[in-house]
């Protein structure tokens, strides 16, 4: 049995990843603030084990308890491989430094950086006696490597997530175990996040015309397309600590 734990799976890329993993030998546990009735109906139709765990990643003090609850649904004796996909993310605030609200900045850092770090920490702690393979995938962004005016917090958290991925992967590789930690940058996708970006004011986000053009010219990738590439990647040999970019597979 292969187990997959996916955050932010109520919509967008997370939802598409869950659908791509609908195979009977998989058990999928998705974490989000709200459940997804479409996913649950599809799971019943395809006779796939799908579990929902309520989780608000801005409440970082609850993350350890959430991971403990997730592992009550996992049989480590029967498990062959466990995969954690830290997919949840937020773009807000799209504001110039000096104009953003403190609570928005804090929430962004909690969801984009602190949550995946803590989820990875508690995930690995649960696997001390597990002899099978374990993979952590951190969904990152090209914004980790390029500054966008108005995205100071988003760019910074994704850059931090990349460094965490590289460092944690280096540690696991040095231990010579079956734990692999990677990053994956999916590029621009047709998701709610992109819709939110297009509602920003150009005074806050200087690159707004470019992102509107992506939408108008049909340049946004479908989440289902990205999910297929990611799932294929996860099931192939992986380089510990590497941050993969979807452009490598196009």
UniProtKB/TrEMBL annotation:
GO terms for molecular function: oxidoreductase activity. InterPro entries: Biopterin_syn/organic_redct, NAD(P)-bd_dom_sf, Sc_DH/Rdtase_CS, SDR_fam. The keyword NADP applies. Its EC number is 1.1.1.320. Keywords: Cytoplasm, NADP, Oxidoreductase. The keyword Transit peptide does not apply. Pfam families: adh_short (PF00106). It is found in: Cytoplasm. Signal peptide: none annotated. Belongs to the short-chain dehydrogenases/reductases (SDR) family. This is Benzil reductase ((S)-benzoin forming).
């Amino acid at each position: 049995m292969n187990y997959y734990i996916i955050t932010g799976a109520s919509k967008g890329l997370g939802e598409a990843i869950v659908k791509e993993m609908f195979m009977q030998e998989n058990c999928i546990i998705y974490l989000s603030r709200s459940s997804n009735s479409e996913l649950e109906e599809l799971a019943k139709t395809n006779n796939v084990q799908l579990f929902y765990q309520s989780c608000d990643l801005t409440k970082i003090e609850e993350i350890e308890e959430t991971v403990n609850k997730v592992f009550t649904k996992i049989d480590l004796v029967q498990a062959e491989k466990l995969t954690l996909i830290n997919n949840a993310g937020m773009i807000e605030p799209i504001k110039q430094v000096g104009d953003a609200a403190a609570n928005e900045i804090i929430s962004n850092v909690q969801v984009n950086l602190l949550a995946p770090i803590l989820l990875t920490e508690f995930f690995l702690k649960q696997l001390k006696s597990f002899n099978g393979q374990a993979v952590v995938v951190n969904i990152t962004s090209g914004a980790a490597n390029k500054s966008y005016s108005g995205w100071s917090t988003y760019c910074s958290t994704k850059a931090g997530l990349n460094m965490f991925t590289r460092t944690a992967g280096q540690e696991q590789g040095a231990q010579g175990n079956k734990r692999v930690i990677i990053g994956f940058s999916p590029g621009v996708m047709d998701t709610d996040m992109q819709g939110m970006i297009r509602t920003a004011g150009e005074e806050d986000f200087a690159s707004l015309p470019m992102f509107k053009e992506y939408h108008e010219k049909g340049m946004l990738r479908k989440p289902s397309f990205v999910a297929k590439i990611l799932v294929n990647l996860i099931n192939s040999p992986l380089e510990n600590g590497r941050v993969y970019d979807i452009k490598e597979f196009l």
